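pasting for ref
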Amino acid sequence: MGVLAEYGDGSSHILSELRGDDMLRYLTAGESHGKGIVAVLDGMPAGLRLSRQQIDAELAARQSGYGRGDRMKIERDSVEVLSGLRGGVTIGSPIALLIKNKDWKNWRDIMDPWQESDAAVEAAVTHPRPGHADLAGALKYGHADVRNVLERSSARETAARVAVGAIGKAFLAEFGIAVVSHVIALGGVKAKTSGMGVQRIKEVSERSSLRCADKTAERTMTGAIDRAKELGDSLGGIVEVRVAGVPVGLGSYSQWDRKLDGRLAAAVMSIQAIKGVEIGSGFAAASRRGSQVHDEILYSKERGFHRKTNRAGGIEGGVSNGEDIVVRAAMKPIPTLRNPLSSVDIATKKAFAASVERADVVAVPAASVVAGAAVAFVLADAMLEKFGGDNLAETRSNYEHYLAQIRDR
């Protein structure tokens, strides 16, 4: 059952039911050292041309970055499409994606789905790591071996999200919507990117080993990473996602779960190690006067309604307002340290140093890629919610009619 939309030129189109069955959705599956990571994306219209190189490039970006550990040298992620695509074009059925774990061969005995080997028993993890889901997950699910928790809670899962986000970006690009994500702070060092547009940020940050658009800050950040590595410590930071070309009217002010900023915040907050999310001026707005926070509205024949500033980050009242969407996320330092923190053995209750599963000093650049993917998925979902369509041509027609309608206002 759809919604009939009537436009100013007398035409009408059937849009998908709000928050109904045509909404985009996805699930991921897989363990960090299992056979692979899987994602199933449902609801993408038919007719969208995809490129394997485009998805693989996003996966490679997630694995890159100064300060990453040795696992990034083992895995070279590449997507395998199992369904939903023919000749590089979506056919409207669920898109199943597989990213194989090359390290699986070294973990086959420990992670075998059917047989519990002696190797698996010997490799049991009983020292939960502070800052991870290890202890809470083991208590919740009744596991004696913490590996059952850490294998799934691992950030390795984000490879699937990035693959899904790459498809979302390809869909958004059909409507002139561009998504860029970059690092704006790392280890207490802040980048200066004020006044830089989306395209310029993209050009500079994608040539940076830290996905930072400020070369001076990048050098200082690199030094901070080196010092933390020498100490066996880790660093966190802040990532920013900017989206240009978003039309007015995505999301809704009418219900809490349809507010665009709420949906974006939830998606980004769900990324491993993210501890805070803000839209636009965010937390800084709390210490400023109203005259320093809100964006004055202007009008011109060339641009129509627009804002003098963009402190709201492109969203007002849960609805996109036509300005660039700006989302930032704070990532805590990776809790697995070369010099591990104190923990307690869950079997003996004796004090031990926490287990060490990986040795990244910092993963903030990778988090920026994952955040970009998360934002792209939510906006693709919101576009389909607004404009519907079982195929790309239908969605584009509805979109163009809507733009013509608001231009006449």
